[in-house]
Inverse folding.
């Protein structure tokens, strides 16, 4: 039987983000204002009531500010006793008079502090929690928790077994929709629970040695198409994300999208051995009495009541299991192995299109396949590198916690690009008598299956029409668990002229980075490896080399400690490498061959760490 697990997490954030200016009605800033503290606590009580009256238990993540409030502490203790709620501790909600007086800063993102301050703040917050409750928490979290921070917490406070550790695709897209003022970048992580490696929070651990000791959960469950294409803050199972995205009927105050989104998360059990997950992580700032997102308080409250009621209905029907964070951590470790991937065949439920993406995540990669582009890989993160990426003041990455990409269609184009240059994508081109068709132009649909430890995408065949030849071609993409490889098969099912022969060009255009802006490519080395080895040191000269019968074509990308390779099976084939130029700073790995009716061409893309 499929199991749909839900975490509902509330935090008594006594000084909610954004709320002071609203509550203060234009008065001089005062984060200790009594009306702010009172309203925040009232909203927290309302949120707890919404969950409890629908038979749902919560995880109460106490904020630093709430640890100085006797009523918040009493409520947490009472709800733990009566409803089985877990009392955890969040590293959000740091700002309060006590914090600002000690640290003399308005910074509130724990991962952005210097490591010295991170340790001091953690010790302060955990120490205060222990003083109040007499024990240390089993769960913690933030918008993001970098590896150094996680490792320190686990070593000093071993009771912690679960943490909110990243916000899915909260990068440049979110920054731009916040008027270029939200300096938090954390693209490239998992969208569903995972065990973070000690080296990098985003990259799942491949074994016990890499295990950071916690189970990580995402900060909100996002729409895996709408969030990827646009601002994720508008598309999540937090009801007021949906209001912020204006995805509701303004007359009836109905929001079918919210329920469709929850249901699509329920459906992910089909791709993950019967297990699906969803979470809702809420602070009181969302239900301000003055209203938010052009929505009045009454609608804010109704949306949250309705969201909890839907979860409660699913629980009563036996289709949902509510867990606290620590309960979920225990369940997850029993349920999942290190190398077992997380898969999501996701369809558009917002815009009415037929768009379909497939997301794959394991300790070696995160990949996205776009069926609107013929099954092209449009996002690829090389987790195999387990890239050490310190974040915060005093590091090279003060605000940018993103895991770098090799392919990313939103920040480095994709197939549909400028009149000159190329975008990052992994696809294939079919050529006949001087006519060329890129499979990116051939929309299709995918069907998921699992054979042993292989997760297989079988794409509907596409018809490729040349002036005097039609080719019916089918693609299969196989993710082999624990291998760090993606296998691609292109099979010709039928030709209008069975004696014809077409040329196939399997290619990968890539670069590296975390934003839209190009990085220095000059340290990259490209190679064709076979009976001889041909190399190119990247110099922006638009050069190309080829090697008939090449065993592999590779790129070594030292800034992200990654080696990416492409190899082809059997057949007469030619491997090639190509460097870009300043206007189009990419690199290309590829194989060319010839295909006849009923033949198949198989290639593998592989990722490894390169020191």
């Amino acid at each position: 039987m499929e199991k749909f697990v839900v975490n509902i997490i509330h935090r008594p954030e006594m000084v909610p983000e954004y709320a002071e200016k609203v509550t203060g009605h234009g008065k001089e800033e005062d984060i200790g204002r009594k009306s702010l503290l009172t309203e925040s606590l009232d909203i927290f009580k309302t949120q707890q009531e919404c969950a409890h009256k629908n038979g749902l238990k919560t995880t109460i993540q106490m904020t630093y500010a709430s640890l100085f409030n006797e009523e918040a502490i009493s409520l947490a203790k009472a709800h733990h006793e009566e409803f089985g709620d877990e009392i955890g501790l969040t590293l959000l909600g740091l700002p309060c008079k006590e914090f600002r007086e000690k640290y003399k800063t308005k910074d509130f993102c724990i991962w952005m502090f210097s490591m010295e301050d991170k340790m001091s703040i953690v010790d302060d917050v955990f120490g205060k929690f222990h003083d109040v409750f007499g024990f240390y928490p089993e769960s913690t979290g933030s918008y993001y928790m970098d590896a150094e921070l996680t490792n320190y917490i686990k070593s000093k406070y071993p009771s912690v077994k679960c943490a909110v550790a990243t916000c899915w695709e909260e990068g440049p897209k979110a920054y731009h929709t916040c008027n270029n003022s939200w300096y938090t970048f954390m693209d490239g992580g998992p969208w569903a629970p995972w065990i973070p490696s000690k080296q990098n929070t985003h990259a799942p651990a491949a074994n016990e040695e890499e295990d950071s000791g916690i189970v990580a959960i995402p900060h909100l469950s996002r729409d895996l198409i709408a969030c990827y294409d646009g601002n994720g803050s508008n598309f999540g199972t937090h009801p007021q994300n949906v209001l912020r995205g204006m995805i509701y009927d303004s007359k009836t105050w109905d929001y079918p999208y919210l329920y469709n989104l929850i249901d699509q998360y329920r459906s992910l059990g089909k791709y993950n051995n019967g297990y699906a997950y969803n979470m809702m992580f809420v602070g009181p700032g969302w239900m301000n009495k003055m209203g938010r997102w052009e929505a009045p308080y009454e609608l804010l409250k109704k949306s949250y009541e309705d969201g909890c009621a839907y979860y409660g209905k699913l629980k009563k029907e036996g289709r949902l299991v509510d867990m606290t964070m620590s309960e979920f951590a225990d369940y997850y470790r029993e349920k999942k192995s290190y190398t077992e991937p997380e898969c999501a065949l996701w369809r558009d439920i917002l815009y009415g299109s037929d768009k379909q993406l497939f997301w794959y995540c394991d300790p070696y990669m995160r990949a996205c396949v776009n069926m609107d582009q013929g099954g092209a890989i449009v996002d690829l993160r090389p987790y195999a590198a387990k890239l050490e990426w310190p974040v915060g003041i005093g590091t090279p990455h003060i605000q940018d916690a993103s895991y770098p990409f090799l392919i990313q269609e939103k920040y480095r184009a994709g197939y549909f690009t400028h009149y000159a240059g190329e975008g990052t994508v992994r696809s294939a081109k079919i050529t006949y008598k001087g006519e060329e068709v890129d499979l990116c132009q051939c929309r299709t649909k995918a069907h998921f299956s699992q054979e042993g430890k292989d997760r297989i995408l079988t794409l509907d065949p596409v018809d490729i029409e040349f002036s005097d030849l039609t080719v019916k071609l089918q693609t299969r993409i196989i993710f082999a668990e624990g291998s760090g490889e993606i296998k691609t098969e292109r099979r010709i099912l039928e030709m209008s002229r069975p004696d014809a022969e077409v040329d196939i060009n399997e290619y990968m255009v890539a670069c590296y980075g975390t934003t839209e802006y190009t990085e220095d490519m000059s340290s990259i080395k490209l190679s064709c490896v076979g009976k001889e080895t041909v190399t190119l040191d990247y110099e922006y000269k638009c050069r190309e080399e080829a090697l008939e019968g090449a065993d592999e074509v590779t790129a070594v990308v030292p800034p992200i400690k990654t080696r990416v390779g492409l190899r082809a099976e059997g057949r007469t084939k030619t491997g090639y490498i190509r460097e870009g130029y300043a206007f189009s700073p990419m690199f290309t790995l590829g194989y060319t061959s010839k295909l006849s009716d009923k033949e198949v061409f198989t290639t593998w893309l592989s990722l490894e760490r390169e020191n």
